[in-house]
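Lab notebook, entry 248. We have the chain sequence and a SMILES string for 1,3-dihydroxyacetonephosphate, and the next step in the workflow is to get a structural model of the bound complex before anyone spends time on docking refinements. Request logged below.

Task: model protein plus 1,3-dihydroxyacetonephosphate, output structure tokens.
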Amino acid sequence: MANRKFIVGNWKMNGLRSALGDIGGIAKIAEQNSGVDVAICPPATLIASAAAEFPDVAIGAQDCHQASSGAHTGCLSSDMIKEAGASLSILGHSERRADQHETDADVKAKAEAVRSAGLGAIICVGETEEERDAGSAVSVVCGQLSGSFPEGADGDWLTIAYEPVWAIGTGRVPEASDVEEMHAAIRSKLGELMADGSENVRILYGGSMNGGNAAELLAVPNVDGGLVGGASLSAEKFGPIIEAAAAF
Ligand SMILES: O=C(CO)COP(=O)(O)O
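Result returned:
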């Protein structure tokens, strides 16, 4: 499984019903590139209609509450996103860690909730610019990974996304050598955290990936795909990334 690239679009807080056509266009490109796994994570309001209209592309959520139900105004449980048609959820994105103050412990609990519902999880980790400048990027990211890591995980449902905070939405991308170092460190940490199957966990790179730099980033050892924000919002921009992944 780890040899199939996984390209995921994170639409963040973008997309009204009028954007469903873009999901249709992406689904078509995904179908034409069947050697690549593709998922789109639109806002929660579009999950049900996207999943119903485009059953051939995986639809994911961008978050999921750790509790199965209860007094959590504005939140969605793993069973709710599953019923709507999601097959996976992004968890612990740096924007949620910053804006909603999500902790590693929260992300771990969310991942366990998602697994109980039979969904896939994409756990996000990544350092800030200050942490990189201080030389602590690898230790920060490995610490986040350990703290966010679900109990007793096996490889089939889990994906890790390395997204340096300073590369998100900025047009700045780390040197390939820095990506290689970080993905190797994550791979090695996964080996410590998992009894077996760690080699099957895909490690995605995210942060200003686009059609122009995808091939280079996807060629880096241990980069098993991409988590794409801005360049996933249209088939025109996302298509070249999927096509770049298909060349591996
Ligand atoms: O945060 C990201 C995906 O989760 C990356 O966003 P950009 O691709 O817009 O930099």
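Notes for the group: The first strand starts at residue 6 and ends at 10. Worth checking against the assay data. Residues 10, 93, 163, 168-169, 206-209, 227-231 surround 1,3-dihydroxyacetonephosphate (CB under 6 Å).
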